[in-house]
């Protein structure tokens, strides 16, 4: 019997069928097939930023996700969550502690706000942890490529077929 775990998953807009059709239409491979999905763990943070302006301070709210498998941080749009029971072998292991994730979130939000507002003035950032969330990625194998499809955005990430 397969071991399963209940996790909080970001509700995706792209189904496995949508992912398969998308890759098939782009590669022209009608025999493309789905490989087992991958479910990435992310630390989720709410960020509140207080930014100085000519009219006083402006408050900006952001969501920051930090990939718990390899430590990459990114800001995100609002999303819906749902609880789901998934096979344990589909979950990537958590490789990052929450303290390291909070530091990455702080740097990610600082960088994003600096680019968004094009300013070098200091601004205050408060990071509040929301817990662990997971994001599903569909893996589609075609004759010419292996592609990872983001279930929330539909973005494509080519994967290597073989190690060099």
Summarize the structure.
The protein has 164 residues and is an alpha+beta fold. It contains two helices and eight strands.
Account of the 3D structure:
The chain has 164 residues and is an alpha+beta fold. It has one domain. The chain contains 2 helices and 8 strands; from the N terminus they run E-H-E-E-E-E-H-E-E-E. It has helices spanning 16-27, 98-117; strands spanning 4-10, 33-53, 56-67, 73-76, 81-87, 124-141, 146-150, 156-159. The protein has a 6-stranded antiparallel sheet. The chain has a two-stranded antiparallel ribbon with strand order 1-5. The longest helix has 20 residues, at 98-117. The radius of gyration is 19 Å and the shape is globular. The model has no long low-confidence stretch (mean pLDDT 90).
Give the helices and strands, then pairings:
Elements: E1 4-10, H1 16-27, E2 33-53, E3 56-67, E4 73-76, E5 81-87, H2 98-117, E6 124-141, E7 146-150, E8 156-159
Antiparallel strand pairs: 1-5, 2-3, 2-6, 3-4, 6-7, 7-8
- What's the main sheet like? 6 strands, antiparallel
Number of helices: 2
Strand % is over 45%
Amount of helix: 10-25%
| Strand runs, count | 8
Tell me the distance between the termini: 36 Å
> Numbering strands along the chain, what is their spatial order in the largest sheet?
4-3-2-6-7-8
Stretches where pLDDT is under 50 for at least 5 consecutive residues are none
The whole-angstrom Rg is 19 Å
Number of domains: 1
Q: Which class do the helix and strand fractions yield? A: alpha+beta
Order of helices and strands: EHEEEEHEEE
On the 0 to 100 scale, the average pLDDT is: 90
Shape: globular
